[in-house]
Specification:
single chain; 151 residues; alpha+beta; 8-stranded antiparallel beta barrel; 2 helices
């Protein structure tokens, strides 16, 4: 079988190379995207709850009230997010930006209920291996944390 002319082979190899690069970029972009909507809740470890001044555990009513907070986190491909916390008829709306490094996404709230936040604190979130679960904790020996699952 005769070889194709040099220019035909080069055009083919160039197109093939560009296609492979495009596929590789698409695969990395798709696999690394946290974009989507997550439902969240506050998880409380009752064994680590602080004692009240009367020496008893935090009241059952208080734990129940915190457990009823409904969270919705929407993360966009452009690096922005929207976090809505509903407690009965009241809602708190936070917006901001996020970055990702490995298995951690760091959220920074820039607006709370439409008002600019001047002293924003970075909030690191642990990303699960399947990228469908996020966890926002409060440090070592956590007694409570926010857990988010992708819808």
């Amino acid at each position: 079988m005769p070889l194709l002319p040099y220019t035909v082979r080069m055009r083919f190899l160039t197109k093939l190379s560009l296609l492979l690069v495009a596929l590789a970029v698409a695969a990395v972009s798709f696999a690394g995207s946290l974009a989507g909507t997550y439902s969240g809740r506050l998880v409380i470890d009752r064994g680590q709850l602080p004692r009240t001044t009367k020496g008893g555990e935090m009241s059952h009513a208080a734990v129940q009230a915190y457990s009823k907070i409904k969270l919705t986190l929407t993360m966009k491909d452009d690096g922005t997010f929207l976090l809505v916390a509903k407690t009965g008829p009241t809602s708190v709306l936070n917006t901001g930006t996020y970055t990702r490094s490995g298995d951690t996404a760091t959220l920074i709230v820039t607006k709370k209920n439409g008002q600019a936040v001047s002293n924003a604190v970075p909030m690191p979130m642990k990303i699960s291996k399947n990228e469908h679960e996020l966890q926002l904790g409060f440090g070592e020996g956590e007694m409570a944390w926010f857990s988010f699952n992708k819808n």
